[in-house]
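Box S1 | Example of a co-folding query
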Amino acid sequence: MKIQLKNLTKDYGSIVAVDDLNIEFDEKKITILIGPSGCGKTTTLKMINRLIERTSGDIVFDGKSINDMDRINLRRHIGYAIQEIGLFMHMSIFDNIAVVPRLLKWPENKVKNRVAELMDLVNLDPDEYMYKYPAQLSGGQKQRIGVARSLAANPEVVLMDEPFGAIDPINREKLQDAFLEIQEQIQKTIIFVTHDIREAIKLGDKIAIFNRGKLVQYDEVLNVINKPANGFVENLLGSDRALKGLETMRVKENFDTDFYSMNTIEIKTTGEALKFLDDNGRRYCYVVDGKNRLKGYVGKRELEKRKPETELKEEIKNIESLQPYSNLMEAISTMVVAGLNTCPVVNAKDQLLGVVRFKEIFKIAASFQSED
Ligand SMILES: Nc1ncnc2c1ncn2[C@@H]1O[C@H](COP(=O)(O)OP(=O)(O)OP(=O)(O)O)[C@@H](O)[C@H]1O
Ligand SMILES: [Mg+2]
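Box S1 (continued) | Returned holo structure for magnesium ion
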């Protein structure tokens, strides 16, 4: 659904929270709203689903003014993850997620499947958590339930107000990856508020930058990075634009499918593995199982120390891996920490898809710098 804000204004007496805002949100894309505390982000979201009534201006959904729409009905078709999480404390996690589907009178078995599916999606085991209460969850877990709830009734539009704000950096990255993977499937029109410029760059198709109730810049992420509208935006982006450029690029579009792997179905002993390495002129090689799931790697030097009939399984070493939706900045930091020049890429099922090479990422970073 396309959403247009036309001369949208909200004032609280002398405070103008949102000041003559004109913006058009792209259908099926993620638009990020970012800016300092108090710049009007939450107020803007709440006007879109009429939790707050605007002072003047209009909001238009696919050409239809919000004035001509039923308020309750509107809200049921817009998912909303609020900044304060807002779970019902006396209701189980299941009932919290099920609120809107039940209002829409979905049959109970469909509701149940949906709740389990969404909990999986936000990485909370349904068997363990479905019948717990919000008070039994951590802040980050509650926030994930808030995200699941906003998607519950499969709304066309989802408004998310700092949905990952209370989650620690590591889980946050995972959740962001999962979120992008989901969005590629569900293709919702998402308006997403954050304070975090890295999150904005990673998740956004477009970024809308606010200051004091006004829109300062609205453009595709790369354009904002390459051509900040003014000093305020430059400040928000920070100084290192080449590295920020890497944050806009995903592993998915930058990995190499030219690599070696051996399969534990075909190669069962260290002797066979050594022969494979020698035949292919390799010093090491990734190992996958019969379903192409990454098990780790083996190195020639270690294998040579073993009797040739040793089971290969015992010699497989763990290795870090990257996910297709991680960005190249995350890839670099993972590789630096793990000391890898080449890092395998796996999908959500752990299946080996390809490799990322450090050298290639550096070439890309250099190309950003030369565009400045
Ligand atoms: N009910 C209210 N009465 C008076 N002023 C309000 C009210 N709600 C919000 N404001 C003011 O409107 C401005 C915008 O608030 P808003 O909550 O939209 O900011 P925000 O960008 O979401 O900030 P944050 O990043 O801290 O969540 C602020 O100056 C705030 O103090
Ligand atoms: Mg806010």
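The chain has a mean pLDDT of 89. The longest strand covers residues 15-25.
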